[in-house]
Each structure stands twice: as structure tokens, then as C-alpha cells.
Specification:
The protein has 18 helices and 26 strands. By secondary structure, the chain is an alpha+beta fold. The strands form six sheets. The protein has a six-stranded antiparallel barrel. A hairpin with a 7-residue loop joins strand 23 and strand 24. Helix 3 runs antiparallel to helix 4 and helix 7 packs antiparallel against helix 8.
Amino acid sequence: MNILERVDRSDLPPAQVDLYHATDAQRGSPPHKEAPVWVGSPTDTPLFSPTMSSETPISVRTAEDARRQLDSLLDELADLAEGSSAPEDFWPELLSRLVFAASAQGAAIWQWGGSRRLQPLFEQGFDKVYPGQPRDVAIDIDACSLEAALRKPKASTIVSGGQADGPARLMLVAPLTTAARATGLLVLYQPADLPSVTQNGQLRLLDAFGEIAVHFQERRLLADFSGAEQNWKNQLHFARDVHRELDVKRTCYRIANDGRHALDADRVSVAEWDGPSAHVQAISGVDVLNRRAAVVRKLERLATAVAKQRQPVIFRGDRENLPPQIEEALVDYLEESPARLLIAVPLVREAEEATEEPWTSNDGILVGVMIVEQLESTEVERLLARTRSLAESATLALDNAQRYERLPLRGVMQLIGTTLAQFGWRKLSRTMRYVLPVLLALLATWWIPAPFEIDVRGQLQPEIQRQLFAPLDGYVDEILVKHGEMVAAGQVVAQLRSPDLELKQTEAAGLLSAAQSELDAVRVERTQNVRRDDDRRDSRSADRDKLSADEIRLTRRIANLQEQLLLLEAQGRALMLVAPVAGQILSWDIEETLQARPVSRGDSLLKVAEVDGPWILKLEAADRRTKHILNAQAAADAPLPITFHLVSEPGVKHPATLAEISQVIEVGTETDEPAAMLTAHFDKSEVDFLRPGVTVSGRVNCGTRSLAYVWTHELFDAVRRRLFW
């Protein structure tokens, strides 16, 4: 049945006329049976047009004229619902026509939001519906009132608002039910004092508009189902096609070209991850890549940035939320590409037990990056969902191809297999065909010699370096050096200040002054007693003895206080930190970390090292491997050779010799596990990037062993630790 036949409009005109009467009454016009209704001409200006001119209205004075005008409005709206209009185009048209036809304050489409609350998806006339009040609060109140209307089968009325949140408003609500499920509400807003007769007519009008809205949703749902079916067919074809080859380059070409057709995109590119960078292997529609081209180089830079982040990048024209490293690479690439939409998805092979989404997890093995470009505007969410599905199949296909190409001696094994097939190799049992080559290869490894090396990690350090510690509790008053500054032995580098020491000095000085004053008083009194009359000598003998004792006591106390002041002055001089050796200040960010900082006695403040003197390697060897180094050192006549390289210069190797092995096992700073500390000497003139603390990776040469032992000694050690602990 056509949507035009489904809409019941038999009772709409009388109710609409009543609505016009009520509207005139609200405006102050006396109601009468044939009140004029201003509408546009059905031939010149549509009834519902927002741009309708009000200078040449036509007066509709009969219910039959209103019925015809309303029929024309519903017919054109139904035709719009039958078409392929987008929701952003259809819903505003429906609301504007509904508001005009009902002479309402406003209308809205309410649907469930992300917080599981009803929210207005599209609205018309909310400035009139919610005047002079906090709109968000009023909308939340109406949302609570409208939730009950979802469970009603037909249109209903709800009165909301009042003295608390503004003027009362009448909401005429029609539920929108699609596929036996309420998907939203069509709400019409009118004044609360609208007559009940007019309300009934407008409810029937709202039902008619609701049927058209439901029909539009059903057509959208059918279109989505049809698009989903075609999308599944494209994905099945894509998944079947990309797994046909085990060659990495061919697989990338299939992902790019078949992915472009499956996604209906303008261009799809595939970059393979190879260690520190990504290399573009295929671009849809391009047979041969020119790696010197600017677009390829910039695309590889963008793919590398995305791969390192391991997060999908979606560019829709706005770069505000992009990380700086990706934004820079993206802006550089967009100079070569006119893409308006770009989706870059890292292809990450997830573990079997992983439960997170493949392109949101930071775990797994990175195999490549797929970049989808669209030159024209499109439905971003739909393209995003399709890209996400295709990325999973592309990840598996590319990972399988990479695993196959990484097989050791793959070409030799293929040649051997072809040769053995000529001599009846296939006549052997399946077990023998697999077991025999493996046994021969394993036996051969026991006779092939190989260097036995133990991996170590550590740092470059000057051999002579000293730490400056806080002698007392206090705070740093002045910093006289900077990071990296060269200082001489005995040079003042920092001045500390100790309030406790100053307090002790002040107290000691005060006590010394008081004791001195008291001693002077005792001496004066004693002198006066000597000059007095001899008749009183007997009576004053006890006082003279007491004064002599006080003088001795005060003299000793003054001596003690003077010694105490000397010690405090020595401690005060110790607050001036001096460089113990001539060298370079290694402490970083001294001003910010030390200036006016409170310190405790023994706190490490500065480090000084003789960078012009000899340098050493501070290395760490795992405790489980220390035995191999000790045995090799005991069997060798000379120090064990060590080969190391800076982590900032991989591939550039430097020689060194083992000097000392610690007798104590400690927790390593590089490996966070029990380790033995090693010291090695090297020629600093051979190292260009010579800075204290530079991380190095090295290998201690422990002689020669069989290839099988070199490959499996860790496994043997682990088994022995498990079985013979």
C-alpha cells in the first residue's frame, strides 16, 4: 500500500479549522466559524515552504479549502519520504511543515541518546518553546515526561513546565515504531490552554505526520539492510581473494585494489611494517610504484607515524585532535593528495585470547597499515565500519604472507622438495617426509661451530667521578655552576644554608656572652669582698669559697662554649660545597631541582666526573648467564673480549676487554632482574658519541661451541632449573 493511501486524513480538516479558531482567539481575534487562515498558493508557493511570502496570502474560509491545502502538504511530504532523502534533510522539512500546518510553537524528533536518555535529535522553534529559562534543565524535565509516551500505542498529550521552570507547555506526542520497536517520538508543542477539541484534531494530524515519519524510517531501514547485504558480499569476495597468494607484494596489491571496490573508496594504499618504518607496497590503480615520488615518500612517513601510535587516524578536515607527530606527517601528505576524508588503520595481529578490538589494542604484532582516501564527502561512519571489517581480513592475509616469507631457507627447501620428488620422495610416509629432514638438520647443528656470546647491557661512564653530599640538614641557598660546566678541583659549586646550625651558633654565642658576663660579675664581687673589713672575714669565708667555685665553673663553661663555636663554624664552612676533582658537572637541571630545595644530611646533590680522563663500561649480565662468563674467564689466559655498540648507533661496533666481575649479585638497573656487574675498558678515541650514561648493548665472547648449544643453551638451562632446583 502506498504511503499516501495509508495516511487517514478523513477527520483532519475540521480539527484544523478548530485549530485556526483557537489560534485566532489566542491572538485576540474573535472566533467565528469562517475565520481566515493564511496559507500559500498550492501552485505558486508551497504551503510548508519556510521562504513563503506573506505579502500575497490567499484566504481559506472553508473546511474544504483547508482540507485540500492539508492534503497537498501531506502528499508532498509523503513523496519526500518515498525518495532517497537523508535524515538531515527529511526531518527538518517534516518539522517545519508540521509546525506550519498546526500553527504550533515548535516541534521536535526525540530519540535515545548515548546516555540512554531521550534527546531532541532535530528541533524546530525551541526558542519559542523554551523562552527565558535554562533550556538544558527544561529539556531534561521533558525527557523524563516523554519516556512514558514510548510505551503508548497512539498519540497522547503531556503538560510540562509551570511556575518552577517557566510557562507551561502542552506536548502532543506520537510514538515512532519501526520493526515492532519504539525508535523515537514526534513531539508537537502548543500552549497549555489549547482547547480539548483542538487537541483531538491536532492529535489526529500528528498521527498522520507520524505515519509518514515511520514510513521514512522503514525505508531507511530497508536501505540499510540492502546496503549491509551488499557489504557482506563485498567482504566475502575480499576475504576470499586476498588469501589466494602467499607473496607479500601480491597480497598487498589484492588488499589495495579489492579493498577499493569493496569500500567504494577513491584510493586504498597498503604499507608493510618493517621494523622502524613502514614501506608502501601497493596503491590501488597503480601497477608500478615510483619510490622516489614525493607522494610515496610522504605516504610512507604518514604510515610510519600511524604504525608507531598503533591507533587508527580519522581525518575529516579537522586536525585539532591529532597527535603532533601524526598531524605533521598528515599535513605534509595532504599537500600531494586532495583527499577530504582519510582513514589510516594499523594492521595488528592480535593474540588468540585477546578480547579487545583489533584496532584499539596496543598489544599484538604490527604487520602493516591500510590507508583509505575519499575525495568527496561521504557517510563517514559507514565507511569507517566497512574499513574496520576489511582491516581484520587484510591483517590475517598479510600476516600469513609475511610468515611464509620469513621461513628460513625457504628457497632451498623448495628446491630440495622439487629434487626429492623426482626420486620418489612422495612415496614415503607422511611422517617420514617431515621427520627425516628435521633429524638431519638437528644432527648437523652439533658439528657446526659457532661463537658463544652472552648478551650484556650497560652504560658508558668516566672512570673517576665523585658525588657531592649535603653535610647538614638545611636548604640550597645558591648554585654557582650549571649542567655540563667544567670545574677545577676545590672550586666552590654550591652554597648551603642550615637554619638549625645558625640557631645553634646564635644560642652558643648567647650562652658564651651570658657566661662571660656572669664570670665578670663573680670576679668583681670577689674583689669587693677582699677589700672589706677584716672583722667580717670569718663571716664572708663561705661566700668567697662559693665565688671561687663559680669562677672555675664559669671559666670551664666559657672554654666549652668557645670550642663548640669553633665546631659550629667548621660545620658552617662545610656548607660551602667544593668540587673534589677537576671535571664536568653531570647533574641535570640543577637550578630547578636544587635551588631553594630543602635537603637532609647525606642527600646526593651534584656529580662531578673527569671526562678528560679514562672511561669504562659499566655492564650488567643476567645472573643465570654469569656462570658462562666465569667459566670462560677461568679457562682463558687473557681478558675476555667484548663487542659493544651504542643504542643510538646500531651497527657500529666497538671492541672492549673485560676488566672485573663483581662478586655480589644485585638487581640490575637495565634488566630489572638479578645481575652481575661487569667493568670493561675500551679506547675512548674510537667512540664518537662519548657522553656519560649513554646506553650500550654488548656481547661477551665466551669461546666457541656447537651451533646447537648456542641456539638451545637457554632452553637447557631453563629445563635444568625446573627439574633440578
